[in-house]
Amino acid sequence: MPTVLSVCWRYLRAFIIIYLCLYAGNGIATLLPFPLPGSIIGMLILFALLASQLVPTRWVKPGCHLLIRNMALLFVPISVGVMSYTDVLSAQFGPIVVSCVVSTVIVLLVVGISSHRLHGPGRVNTREAADE
Q1: What is the 3-state secondary structure (H, E, C) of the chain?
Q2: What's the pLDDT tens digit per position in 20-54?
């Protein structure tokens, strides 16, 4: 049975790794000549570390599970911040709705075409072929 100290260390290690990637991403973002969010660069750094297995997933998993479980709570400050811009949102309601609809249609088309090309006719699933 893990002790309280070892459980605290696992969470602390996970958050240290996540925040180091975030701060490294923010540092790299300030050096780039084009605007790219540091949090995105930090996630790419974390992905590269996990994919190359330089950082084991078990080191980051406790912190990730904690953040994902409380994700709804983490969106509350953003939602309150958006509510303070209702005048701007209502003035730009038409373009916002049009851009949402157009982007949704584009995403649906791209996913549909990609899925059809990957799993379309002529592609044989090996499990189904083995069952027949």
Answers
A1: CCCHHHHHHHHHHHHHHHHHHHHHHHHHHHHCCCCCCHHHHHHHHHHHHHHCCCCCHHHHHHHHHHHHHCHHHHCHHHHHHHHCCHHHHHHCHHHHHHHHHHHHHHHHHHHHHHHHHHHCCCCCCHHHHHHC
A2: 999 999 999 999 999 899 999 999 999 999 999 99
